[in-house]
């Protein structure tokens, strides 16, 4: 499943990512100070956001659309 997705991005097409989960996936209490003083926190610091950023940097010719539907304090049954 990941190989066709990466091939799609290599071809310059749009990649859609939907993420479900709880607090860790939502970026709860995530805080990172980057070089230059920029600060990432919460959802922009979450692993899905980092993954989408990596994809954008790896495949700059493609558009990456991330939908992080994770919510604090919820289990997978709520989705």
Ranges where pLDDT stays below 50 over 5 or more residues in a row are none
Structural class: alpha+beta
Our estimate of the beta-strand percent is 15-25%
Q: In sequence order, what are the helices and strands, one letter per element? A: HEHEEHE
- Radius of gyration over alpha carbons? 14 Å
Give the overall average pLDDT. Answer: 89
Distance between the termini: 22 Å
State the helicity in percent bands.
Answer: 25-40%
Tertiary shape: flat
Task: Count the DSSP helices.
Answer: 3
Would you report the number of β strands?
4
In order across it, which strands form the biggest sheet? 1-4
Largest sheet data? 2 strands, parallel
Explain this structure.
It is a single chain. It is flat, with a radius of gyration of 14 Å. It has 79 residues and is α+β, with helices and mostly antiparallel strands. The strands form two sheets. The chain has a two-stranded parallel ribbon. The protein is built from three helices and four strands, in the order αβαββαβ. The protein has helices at residues 2-10, 23-26, 47-58, and strands spanning 15-19, 31-33, 39-41, 64-68. The two termini are 22 Å apart. 32% of the residues lie in helices and 20% in strands. A hairpin with a 5-residue loop joins strand 2 and strand 3 (39-41).
